[in-house]
Every structure is written in structure tokens, then in C-alpha cells.
User: Which sequence fits this backbone?
């Protein structure tokens, strides 16, 4: 069983990784399929070492798997941490939908 502290740490890492637009763009690119580090670096106006740093952050958060193929490193997305983050966010979506529904009902009753 996963402890609550581990889940919080994982969520912190996932949301931290998602906080940067280049990392979100990399995940979006990988949602279409595997890619090499060079292919992922192509659309971004940053150095290859900067892309490698972003990939390490994504890998540390569990959002990315990197497998060497000779001299090339092939990357693929791992969606499991995104599912955990989505589950956490869903709890609050339900809470806010309930509150907004009650507010709408209250406003309708006042009219």
C-alpha cells in the first residue's frame, strides 16, 4: 500500500514538472508517440543540455521513461502519475460543482 506521504510527494513532483511550459509541450509531443531527445529538442529554442534537464525533471516525476538505443535515447510518456494527479483534482472539481450548484439554487430561490 502506498503511504499518503508518498502520494503527496509524487503529486508535488508531478505538478512541479507540469509547471514549466517546455515540459508540458514535451509531454504533449510524447502523447503522439515515442521520440528521441533530439526530436523533442527540435521545436524548442533552448540548448540540448536544457532539454536534457527538463527530461530529467519529467523522469524524476515518473512522467517519462528514457531507454537508450545505442547512442540515441528514446523517450516515452508514462501516464500513471497523470492519473494520480487527475484523481486528486477530481476530488476538488466535485466539491466546487456541488458548491456552485447550491449557489445557483440559492440565487434562483431569491428571484
Assistant:
Amino acid at each position: 500500500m502506498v503511504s499518503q506521504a508518498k502520494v503527496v510527494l509524487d503529486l508535488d513532483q508531478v505538478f512541479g514538472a507540469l509547471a514549466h511550459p517546455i515540459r508540458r509541450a514535451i509531454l504533449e509531443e510524447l502523447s503522439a508517440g515515442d521520440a528521441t531527445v533530439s526530436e523533442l529538442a527540435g521545436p524548442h529554442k533552448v540548448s540540448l543540455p536544457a532539454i536534457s534537464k527538463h527530461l530529467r525533471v519529467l523522469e524524476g516525476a515518473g512522467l517519462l521513461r528514457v531507454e537508450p538505443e545505442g547512442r540515441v535515447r528514446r523517450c516515452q510518456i508514462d501516464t500513471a502519475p497523470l492519473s494520480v494527479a487527475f484523481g486528486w483534482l477530481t476530488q476538488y472539481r466535485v466539491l466546487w460543482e456541488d458548491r456552485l450548484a447550491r449557489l445557483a439554487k440559492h440565487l434562483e430561490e431569491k428571484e
